[in-house]
Amino acid sequence: MNMMLRRLSRAAAAGLVAAAALTAAAHSAEAADTLGSAAAGQGRYFGTAVAAGHLGEADYTATLDREFGSVTPENEMKWDATEPSRGTFTFTSADRIVDHAQSRGMDVRGHTLVWHSQLPSWVGTLGASDLRTAMKDHISGLMGHYKGEIHSWDVVNEAFQDGGSGARRSSPFQDKLGDGFIEEAFRAARAADPAAKLCYNDYNTDGVNAKSTAVYNMVKDFTSRGVPIDCVGFQSHFNSNSPVPSDYRQNLQRFADLGVDVQITELDIEGSGSAQAADYTKVVQACLAVERCTGMTVWGVTDKYSWRSGGTPLLFDGNYAKKPAYDAVLSALGGSGGPGEPGGPGEGTATCTATYTRTADWNGGYNGEVTVTAGSEPIGSWTATVTLPARQSVSALWNGTAAFNGNVMTVRPSWNGALAAGTSTTFGFTVTKNGSDAAPAVGACTAS
Question: Does the pLDDT at position 402 exceed 60?
Answer without folding.
Answer: yes
